[in-house]
Each structure stands twice: as C-alpha cells, then as structure tokens.
C-alpha cells in the first residue's frame, strides 16, 4: 500500500498542521512516512505545498513522481489545480471553495470551480463556512482534512487521535473545536 | 529506541546533541535555519549547557566554532550555501590549522533557488579546502553522519563538511537515534602552534594537509557511505550522489534495475570504486544534485570514457533533480496527470498585510520621485520583495550587505542621491563595515535601515542589531544629526517623507532608521504573553 498526497495552499493556511496530523496518524499505523515542506520566503503569502508519502514499505524519494498522487488536498481552490500533473488517473482532488485573493490578477472563482468540476474524482467543500458553523473559523484546515480523510488510506479514528495529540499542548478547548471541525468535514456530503 | 519524526535539519541538530556537541554556531539562512532552531527549542541544550546562540554572520559563526574546537570540544557550524562564501576565509584556513575537538561544518545548498540568489555547490568548497565531505541521502543518514563526521574529524584533526540540499533539509521522516555520547572536557591542542598560521607554520601545515590526501581517499574507498552494487546490464552504469540515488531507485520502482550502480555519500571521490564501475560499462551516467562535480572529475580520468550527466545535457545543467527528470534520462516513462489549466495564475510571495516595510517603501518612493529612477540599492531580506509590483522600489539585490557598498560606489561615481535599503539583521551581518567605508570617504549616501527588530525572512530569529543601531552608526562616525528614526506607519507618512527627503539632499552619509516590529513576531509575542497571563 502506498499513498502519495499533495497538500496545497497559500503560506499561512495551516498546511503544515494538516501534514503533521496525517504524519502522526501514519506513525500510529506503523507506516513509513516522508513529508517534504516549503520553508522560507515562499511562506510570505506565496503558493506552498507539502509532498506526503505514506507506505507500508520503505520510501526512497522525498518527492512524488508526476501522475502518482492519490490525493490533492487543497485548502485554496486555485492552488489545487497547480499540481494536477502530479495527480494519478484515478486520484482525487479535494478542494476548499474559499479563494485567497492576494494577487491582483486572481482569476474568476467560478472558472476555477468549473475546472475542478471537470475532473472525474473531486470533492468541493466550503470549509470556511463549515468551520464557522462548527464554532471555529480558524479550523477550516481540519474541515478539509476531514473531507479528504476517506482518500488518505489511514483509519479515520487514528486521524482523530492524531489531532488530539497535536493540539494537546494548546488545551482541551482547542482540541475540541478541531475535532468537531474534523468530524464536520468527514460527515460532509 | 523510539523513532522520531524529523526534518533533515532537525535530524542533524538532534544528532549533534546526541554526539556530545558542546556548541552550535550559525546565522539564519533557508534551508539551514531549522538546525539551530531545533537545538534552541530543545530543553536539553539548556540543561546540558550546549551553546546555541545566533552569530552576527557566518564568518563569526565559523570562527567561534573553530575556537570551541580549539578547546577540544565538539562544535558545529551551520549555514546555507551562500553563507559559506561569507565564511570562506576561516573555512579555507581551518583546513590548514586543522582542528582539535570534532568540527562539523554543515552547509545546506539550495538547487532550484527556492530561497536564494544562486545555486552554488558546496562540494566544490570541500574539494577546494581538501577536506572530507559527507552527503546523506535520507534523514537517518543525516543523523548517523553527524556521529561519523565528528569521529572522522577527530581522527584526522580536520574539519569535516556535511552537505545537504533543500529537499532533505525540509523533508520529514522517521529517525532512530543512537546512544548518547558525553561532551568532551577542555583539552588544549597538543601542538601549541597548530592554530598559528604564520607563513612558516602554515607551509608545514599545508604540506601535512596534502600528505593526508591519500588517506582521506582511502577512507572514501572503504566508506560504508560509498557502495558499489554490480549488475548484469553493462550498457550503462550509474553513479548517484546523495539524493540522486533516491530518484534512481524511485524511477525503477517495480522494475528490475540490472545495471551497476555506485552510490556516493563521502568525498574525496573514491577513484578505485569509480574504476570498478566504469571498467565494464559502455557508458556512465552521473546523477548528482547541484553542479557537475563528479562528472567533471570523471572526464579528467584517462581510463574513463563515455560520460554523461549535467555537462553534456543528459540531465538539466541547473535546478533540483526529481524522480521525473531521472526517469526520463533512464528512458523510463513518467505518467503525467492533467495539465495545469490556463486559469491558474502565479502567486509570488508578498509583504504580510500590515508590514512596516510597506510604509517604509511608500515613504521612500514619494521622497525620491523627483530624482528619476535607478537610485535605490537594496539587500537580502523580506524587504527584497520591494522589487516586485506594486512597489518596484529597488534596483539591486546582490549579497548580504551589498546595498551599502554599492550605493557608496554609485555615489563615488557621481550618482546623487544614492540610497541603500537594508534590514537591521543584514546591517549587522555585513552592512556595518561598508558604512564605515562610506564615512571614511565621505561618500554621500543615505542608508535606510528597515528595522523590524528581528531576522524576518527566515522566520523571526534574534537580530544582533536590536536596540543598538543608532549607537553603531554613531560609533562608525555618522554625524548624530544625520541619524534619524522614523515610525513606518500610514499616519506618519507625510512626516516620514519629509525626513527622508531632507536626508536625500544631504551631501554626506546619513542614516534613516524605519523602526517597527515585524508583524509576525509581534503577533507571536502577544500570543505568548497572553498564554503566560
């Protein structure tokens, strides 16, 4: 079993937190893991991504080959499209609908959404509204993780455990809102 | 032992502490920054009294680490590839002085220039200085090589370089730590003049370094990091260095790799192993991350023929390697997904909303408007983003500190006004000495110091300049009446424009300090204060 995942978004959107949760859950499943991140200047509102590779066998390359990703998890709609050449023929694009318009030539959002819809396997989710509904506007990244959880190849309850472990330091309230956001994403239809 | 999930950078830091390192010295620079940060954030460093403060620049870091090695203790110095240029003087000479305690120089190269001005290959520096270089291919090796590097350094009394690239630095994987080694006691060098590079002594030391080369080569020949795997298909043999080996294996995933492969993880290049590979092969393809160092060396060996790599265009001459580039070279097909739709636009980095640099540039642009374009020299830091629209405010960014000296040169050439825009951390890194030159020569420049009281671009590390910029400028001889401080906020815009305008007109050295705390650091500080209360 091998799952290659690209997590995409804009610097500051909580991509590394998503990656940390998946990573922790992979460890709990006793799987091998490689997770490549973007640091430095690109984090200043630029496009960022994390390559995540989970496998029951040893993983050699930190980078995912083209056409191999089972999942592109995108917390911003245009950013998911940027990595399509890496998507496997039967892979899934799970994307948030809320754009981050920090560039002057940001395209028409409807056009972006229709590009996503034209893909065979896609999930489009308004994670920001759902997070707000769950009482934690800042947890939209956890809603996205929940929505993508069926395609990650890790038992869902292990993701909940991982979220608990990772946010433990920040207190029970933070853990609870993040779990709720994760569940809201998981149950989204 | 428990498995740890570590970035390549963190694996090196963790290994340093496990291997009895007494101190780590560095100046922040992507992709090397997290090595020092990991030590600073660990409770062990404080408990075990491991020195871990940022230095003013890579040269001072290198020298301080060499000083710690002088005492017989294990020390580490970390930097990005261009930082090694700054530290090149002590680096080259440390190979001549040799070391006492284990001395590891960790250099993180940035092929593809994710966060850099060039993509130089530090292995050349290692060869230039004639010291051993280690190149790990995963996080576990990065960890293990720290132990090995310290031992090798102590065995030969030489600095050892550990060279990584961005991909390994910033990729996380499982690492199994090994047994902890105690820190060493102070023990001065046996040879009292070892570190005195007077010509007569330096000549002797240099000959010693040259005489050591066959032994270093023999170490490489028998090193566990250099492995030869034979194969039945001799039409092509591969030499794969560092991460390139991963991409080779990835490309063949699920298929039989039946060609001979030489994996390189330690330099100097093991020539006997190279000959073993090349002897039976019709052709050799060199896969290496960075410059074509090994390929060049092979082309110089008379017995080795038919070499391909980055020089002959088999692989791209620049940029990071990846599994797809290597697959194509091997003639294995890559399965590309759908193309990127035209609707996708580039998203370059930009100033954080509310950043003080925005107001600083707005004030500068208005003040300098009447003089015509092409008068602003700048530097390496967040404020380099002032080069992008809508500001288009700066005309140069060359290396740390060059804003001050280039403005000086331009002023010496008759350009007026000549403005330097530099950050507070860059100023103490490499700007101060240039300012002294300008003062000594009376070169009419205006230095605008964007003081956000931190090292912003790398994520908010301590800045040596905090709280002392006025004193430093006055101490270097800038007229106190021409050291002005402004608050870069929208509400002070008009006042700031006037102050900058007046200093632009002054025909001597003037400094305007635009001081407002980095918005990211301020947010983090306020959050921490809130949690404490």
Summary, kept brief:
By secondary structure, chain A is α/β, with parallel strands linked by helices.
Overview of this protein structure:
- The complex is a heterodimer of chains A (189) and B (533).
- Chain A is α/β, with parallel strands linked by helices and 189 residues long.
- Chain A is built from 7 helices and 6 strands; from the N terminus they run βαβββαβαβαααα.
- Chain A has helices spanning 15-28, 77-82, 109-117, 127-133, 140-148, 156-167, 172-186, and strands at residues 2-10, 32-36, 47-55, 69-74, 87-96, 122-125.
- In chain A, helix 2 links the parallel strand 4 (69-74) and strand 5.
- Chain B contains 20 helices and 18 strands.
- By secondary structure, chain B is an alpha/beta fold.
- In chain B, the strands form 4 sheets. Chain B has a 6-stranded mixed β-sheet, with helices on both faces. In chain B, strands 8-10-9-12-13 form a 5-stranded mixed β-sheet, with helices on both faces. A 5-stranded parallel β-sheet of chain B has the order 14-15-16-18-17, sandwiched between helices.
- In chain B, 41% of the residues lie in helices and 15% in strands.
- At the A-B interface, helix 1, strand 2, helix 2, strand 5 and helix 3 of A face strand 7, helix 11 and helix 14 of B.
- Strand 2 (32-36) of chain A pairs antiparallel with strand 7 of chain B, so a sheet runs across the interface.
């Amino acid at each position: 079993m091998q799952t290659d995942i690209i997590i995409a978004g804009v610097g500051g959107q909580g991509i590394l937190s998503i990656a940390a949760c998946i990573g922790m859950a992979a460890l709990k499943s006793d799987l091998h893991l490689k997770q490549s991140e973007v640091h430095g200047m690109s984090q200043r509102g630029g496009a960022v991504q994390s390559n995540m590779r989970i496998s029951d066998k040893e993983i050699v390359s930190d980078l995912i080959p083209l056409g191999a990703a089972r999942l592109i998890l995108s917390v911003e709609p245009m950013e998911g499209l940027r990595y399509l050449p890496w998507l496997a023929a039967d892979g899934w694009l799970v994307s948030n609908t809320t754009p981050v318009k920090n560039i002057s030539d940001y395209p028409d959002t409807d056009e972006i959404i229709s590009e996503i819809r034209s893909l065979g396997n896609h999930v489009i989710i308004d994670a920001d509204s759902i997070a707000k509904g769950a009482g934690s506007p800042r947890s939209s990244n956890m809603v996205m993780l929940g929505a993508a959880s069926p395609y990650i190849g890790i038992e869902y309850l292990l993701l909940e455990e991982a979220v608990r472990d990772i946010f433990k330091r920040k207190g029970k309230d933070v853990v609870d809102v993040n779990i709720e956001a994760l569940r809201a994403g998981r149950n989204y239809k | 032992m428990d498995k740890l999930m570590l970035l390549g950078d963190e694996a090196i830091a963790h290994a340093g502490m496990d291997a009895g390192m007494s101190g780590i010295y560095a100046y922040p620079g992507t992709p090397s920054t997290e090595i020092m940060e990991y030590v600073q954030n660990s409770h062990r460093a404080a408990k075990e009294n491991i020195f871990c403060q940022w230095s003013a620049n890579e040269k001072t870091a290198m020298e301080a680490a060499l000083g710690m090695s002088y005492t017989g203790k294990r020390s580490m110095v970390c930097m990005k590839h261009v930082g090694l240029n700054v530290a090149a003087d002590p680096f080259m000479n440390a190979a001549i002085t040799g070391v006492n305690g284990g001395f590891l120089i960790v250099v993180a190269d940035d092929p593809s220039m994710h966060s850099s001005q060039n993509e130089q290959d530090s292995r050349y520096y290692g060869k230039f200085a004639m010291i051993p270089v280690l190149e790990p291919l995963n996080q576990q090796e990065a960890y293990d090589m720290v132990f090995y590097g310290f031992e090798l350094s102590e065995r030969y009394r030489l600095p050892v370089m550990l060279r990584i690239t961005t991909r390994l630095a910033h990729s996380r994987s499982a690492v199994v730590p090994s047994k902890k080694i105690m820190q060493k006691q102070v023990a001065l060098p046996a040879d009292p003049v070892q570190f005195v590079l007077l010509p007569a002594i330096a000549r002797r030391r240099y000959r010693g370094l040259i005489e050591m080369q066959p032994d270093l080569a023999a170490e490489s020949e028998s090193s566990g990091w250099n492995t030869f795997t034979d194969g039945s298909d001799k039409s092509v043999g591969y030499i794969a260095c560092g991460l390139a080996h991963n991409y080779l294996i990835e490309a063949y995933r699920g298929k039989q790799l039946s060609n001979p492969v030489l994996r390189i993880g330690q330099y100097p290049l093991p020539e006997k192993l190279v000959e073993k590979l090349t002897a039976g092969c019709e052709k050799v393809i060199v896969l290496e991350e960075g410059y074509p160092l090994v390929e060049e060396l092979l082309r110089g060996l008379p017995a080795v023929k038919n070499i391909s790599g980055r020089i002959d265009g088999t692989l791209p001459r620049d940029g990071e390697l990846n599994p797809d580039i290597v697959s194509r070279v091997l003639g294995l097909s890559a399965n590309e997904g759908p193309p990127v739709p035209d609707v996708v636009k580039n998203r370059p980095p930009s100033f954080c909303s509310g950043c003080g640099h925005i107001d600083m540039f707005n004030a500068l642009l208005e003040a300098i408007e009447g003089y015509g374009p092409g008068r602003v020299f700048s530097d390496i830091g967040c404020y380099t983003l002032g080069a992008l629209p809508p500001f288009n405010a700066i005309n140069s960014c060359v290396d740390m500190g060059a804003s001050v000296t280039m403005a000086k040169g331009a002023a010496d050439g008759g350009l007026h006004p000549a403005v330097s825009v530099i950050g507070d951390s860059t100023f103490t890194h490499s700007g101060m000495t240039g300012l002294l030159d300008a003062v000594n020569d009376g070169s009419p420049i205006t230095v605008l110091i964007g003081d956000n009281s931190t090292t912003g671009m790398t994520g908010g590390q301590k800045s040596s300049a905090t709280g002392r910029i006025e004193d430093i400028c006055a101490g270097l001889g800038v007229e106190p009446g021409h050291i002005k401080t402004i608050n870069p906020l929208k509400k002070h815009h008009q006042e700031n424009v006037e102050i900058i305008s007046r200093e632009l007109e002054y025909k001597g050295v003037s400094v305007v300090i635009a001081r407002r705390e980095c918005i990211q650091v301020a947010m983090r500080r306020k959050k921490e204060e809130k949690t404490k209360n």
